[in-house]
From TrEMBL:
This is Cupin domain-containing protein. The lineage of its organism: Bacteria, Bacillati, Actinomycetota, Actinomycetes, Pseudonocardiales. Keywords: Dioxygenase, Oxidoreductase. Residues 110-176 form the Cupin type-2 domain. Residues 1-23 are annotated as: Disordered. SUPFAM superfamilies: RmlC-like cupins (SSF51182).
Length: 369
């Protein structure tokens, strides 16, 4: 939405539905400006387009470039109080330089050197991590150490204390997703430092949250489950991979289960409600067989995709890119998306769908517009 344009051009030209220019009209518009007012008749086209005209644009970031710059940051930039995280945000070129991948979603590459710690803090904003390569970092969420490994999807719901520590001799990079832009627009952000002492430095293979909650179809009796955010701190790749593999295998056996031919998908969900893992963010994993092309689809709300494995092409509106492991693509609201798999292609996706759905603003359209 462009609400920044000055009404100067309309002031000068008149036109349908517009008043005749002249000194009296100019004086009226100066009065509006002095009183911080904007008349609707100069803005209606941008405020009420027939269908969404997002300011965010389709864009692709190459993982190899991100990783090179993150490594260089690792050489030059310390991690500690103040900066808090060595995280480098994707800034959508349509959003005026703000560190926002879309109007609602933050996406960043975060990098931790061997044996390095990122300090403990908490914020109202909801966060997740997705690991496209590497291991060796534990994220400690409210004193529960959670291992991070390739393919894992990890949650840090809002207002939980969290810090990260790299226990290995290799650096590690991963994707952070947060609802920071949404919180920024809403004025809903809060932030607090945590204790200075290093959190629990044990390095268990499974977090306490997984030991309690990550048994398929079984929930602990007598434990009050979280309804706003999933109580599972980490969704492990072995489970995600098996779910996708079985969908495609069932399709081969002529049984239903896949989203569309050659395209399996799972949504990370809250075991207590069956709903999304976070109040503001939906996360999914998609698997396309080599040669599969998805139906073209557009929806209200924005999303970010990251290639987990394989090669393909992603078309967003009138842009098209080849994509490889780690590459990221933004899909603005109501812009059509088509994905084509050259090899087998695994893709992680997150979106603001829970916000749009709760406000009944969601719409989906299949096929080329
Ligand atoms: C944050 O706390 C993390 O916990 C990542 O890893 C990115 C961006 C802005 C503010 C806080 C993290 C962040 C962040």
């Amino acid at each position: 939405m462009t609400v920044h344009a000055s009404p100067v051009s309309l002031r000068a030209t008149g036109g349908p539905g517009q008043p005749e220019p002249g000194p009296a009209l100019s004086e009226l518009y100066r009065g509006f400006e002095r009183q911080s007012l904007v008349p609707l008749w100069t803005e209606i086209g941008d405020l009420m387009p027939p269908s969404p005209r997002p300011r965010a644009v389709p864009h692709r970031w190459c993982w190899s470039e991100l990783l090179g710059l993150a490594q260089r940051s690792g050489d030059l930039v310390p991690v500690g109080r103040g900066g808090e995280r060595r995280a480098i945000a994707l800034a959508n070129p349509g959003l005026g330089g703000a560190p926002f991948a879309t109007p609602t979603l933050w996406a960043a590459i975060q990098y931790l050197n061997p044996r390095e710690d990122a300090p403990v803090h908490r914020h109202a904003q909801n966060a997740f991590r997705f690991v496209v390569e590497g291991e060796g970092v534990w994220t400690v969420v409210d004193d529960d150490p959670v291992a991070m490994r390739r393919g894992d999807f990890l949650l840090t719901p809002g207002w939980r204390f969290h810090g990260h520590h790299n226990r290995s001799d290799a650096p590690m990079a991963w994707l952070d997703g947060l609802d920071i832009p949404f919180a920024h627009h809403m004025g809903s952000g809060f932030f607090e430092d945590g204790p200075e002492e290093v959190p629990d430095r044990s390095a268990p293979a499974r977090s306490r949250s997984e030991r309690l909650w990550s048994h398929p179809g079984l929930r602990p009796v007598g434990v009050t489950g979280e309804t706003r955010c999933s109580p599972i701190a980490a969704y492990r790749w072995e489970h995600t991979d098996a779910a996708l593999r079985e969908q495609l295998a069932l399709a081969d056996e002529g049984r239903p289960g896949v989203l569309e031919a050659g395209h399996a998908a799972v949504r990370f969900s809250n075991p207590v409600t069956g709903g999304d893992v976070l109040p503001t963010i939906r996360a999914e994993m998609h698997r396309l067989r080599a040669g599969t092309r998805t139906a073209t689809r557009r929806e209200v709300g924005s999303s970010v995709w990251q290639v987990f494995d394989g090669e393909g092409t992603v078309r967003v509106g009138d842009r098209e890119w080849p994509v490889h492991r780690g590459d990221l693509v933004t899909v603005p609201s109501w812009v059509p998306l088509t994905v084509t798999a050259v090899t087998g292609l695994d893709l992680f996706r997150f979106s603001d769908a829970p916000i749009l759905e709760r406000l009944h603003l969601d719409r989906v359209e299949l096929g080329n517009p």
